[in-house]
């Protein structure tokens, strides 16, 4: 590749992933002028602009989009070569970028990371919270921005992801104890659809489970409030603004609430850990997954309110 260096690729990917030279510089812990100069040098070497620059955003050109997967593959290969050397020295080094979900308290992530640091002090873990739900995390896995992600995608695992089930739990309807459905026991989806819902935005796994159930029943419902942090949904439900499907593990305090069962459908939420099937995990990523498997060797099913382990 002539004068293209790994540093050029690293800086290019940082800008592509963050959409900003400023954010890329913060991620790389360098000054912004250094990032800009390095990317310009790469563009001169390649003879093509890689980014469209505007005051509002930085986006990839057609050439940049074509270059992106090759740059990531090259950098991944370089990291794999380093891994091979470090293995012969008995020490692991590297960074694992992990996509997480807010409010899910099933995997003791702080404890897991503390144990990983003790076992492999040369491994650094970067956490990225889900801003677009499990669907967004899955896309970031596919394009290489994440190494590992905790997903709650319903149904069979996508063919391009390698997943392992960590937990599975039924979803029940929570209502305010003053709601007309309080004390109703079990009701069909059509009865639930008479009331507004509190739910996550589209793209979140729990939203997809519920949307699919209503679609299968041929019933339409209204989502009046969308909250990205599903743990806060119960506050809106308690205030009487709507009803909502939640797992019991999300509701440690049931004061002012009642639950309603679904008579004609079983809705289950599941949590998996996933990697991209098209890329071999780095040694650091494998160390993270191995430790997770030690701490969670089998899926947790049923009532999960006793488990205090955040995704």
Automatic annotation (TrEMBL):
It comes from the Bacteria. The keyword Transcription applies. Keywords: DNA-binding, Transcription, Transcription regulation. CDD domains: PBP2_LTTR_like_3. Residues 4-61 form the HTH lysR-type domain. The keyword Transcription applies. This is LysR family transcriptional regulator.
């Amino acid at each position: 590749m002539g004068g293209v260096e790994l540093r050029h690729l690293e800086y290019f990917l940082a800008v592509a992933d963050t959409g900003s030279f400023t954010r890329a510089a913060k991620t790389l812990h360098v000054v912004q002028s250094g990032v800009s100069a390095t990317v310009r040098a790469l563009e001169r070497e390649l003879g093509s602009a890689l980014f469209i620059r505007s005051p509002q955003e930085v986006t990839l050109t057609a050439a940049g989009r074509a270059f992106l997967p090759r740059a990531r593959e090259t950098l991944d290969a370089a990291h794999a070569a380093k891994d091979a050397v470090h293995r012969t020295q008995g020490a692991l080094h590297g960074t694992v970028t992990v996509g997480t979900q807010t409010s899910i308290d099933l995997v003791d992530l702080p404890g897991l990371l503390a144990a990983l640091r003790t076992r492999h002090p040369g491994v650094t873990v970067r956490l990225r919270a889900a801003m677009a739900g499990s669907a967004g995390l899955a896309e970031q896995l596919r394009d290489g921005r994440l190494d590992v992600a905790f997903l709650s995608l319903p149904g069979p695992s996508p063919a391009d992801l390698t997943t392992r089930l960590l937990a599975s739990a039924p979803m029940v309807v929570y209502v305010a104890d003053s709601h007309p459905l309080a004390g109703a026991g079990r009701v069909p989806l059509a009865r639930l659809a008479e009331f507004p819902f509190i739910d996550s935005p589209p793209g979140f796994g729990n939203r997809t489970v519920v949307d699919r159930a209503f679609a299968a029943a041929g019933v339409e419902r209204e989502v009046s409030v969308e909250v990205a942090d599903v743990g806060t949904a119960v506050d809106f439900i308690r205030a009487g603004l709507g009803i909502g499907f939640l797992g019991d593990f999300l509701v440690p305090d049931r004061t002012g609430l009642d639950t309603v069962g679904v008579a004609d459908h079983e809705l289950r939420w599941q949590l998996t850990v996933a990697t991209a099937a098209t890329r071999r995990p780095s040694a650091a990523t494998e160390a993270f997954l191995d430790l997770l498997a030690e701490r969670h060797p089998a899926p947790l099913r049923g009532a999960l309110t006793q488990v205090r382990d955040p995704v």
